[in-house]
Amino acid sequence: MSTSGDQPRPGHGAPSSGWRARAAELRRTGWKRLRGGELTPARAAVSVAVGLFIGCLPVFGLHLPLVLAVCLPLELDAPVAYLAANVSNPLVAPWLIVAEVQTGSWLRTGAFVGFDAAMARSAGIGGFASFAAIGAVVVGAVLAALGGGAAGLLAGRWRARSSEAHPD
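The structure assignment produced for this chain is given below.
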């Protein structure tokens, strides 16, 4: 048994801090890789646009892998994009899906689809799925353009105010 003045034997006592330093370094480099660099107004706009577009795709459960697959190679801000991809949260998703199905129906047939039992039987699940797939691309592109533009403007204003407050 060691006393407070004794050194712990090798393999006993406090673990080496080497693994902690390595783990901290991996977290830092991983976070930097996810962030992709400085969040300029242009990078903020594109990251939000990518996230909104992916969030509109009816592939629930795959939004995070898709965000990472797009953002990491392009060095976009993956956390910002994933936050934007959560546009398809449980409060918004039903409205988003209706908009996508209606848009897809209008593009394919020239008419909006009715959400009633008779229409559901005639269109079938395949019809609604194809309407949603087509509509998701269009709705996603529109939301991406609007949201990306708004994010770029807001990031630019924030950066301008920040530079006025802290001139270097």
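Interim note for the steering committee: The chain has a mean pLDDT of 83. The helical segments are 18-35, 41-56, 63-74, 78-85, 93-109, 117-165.
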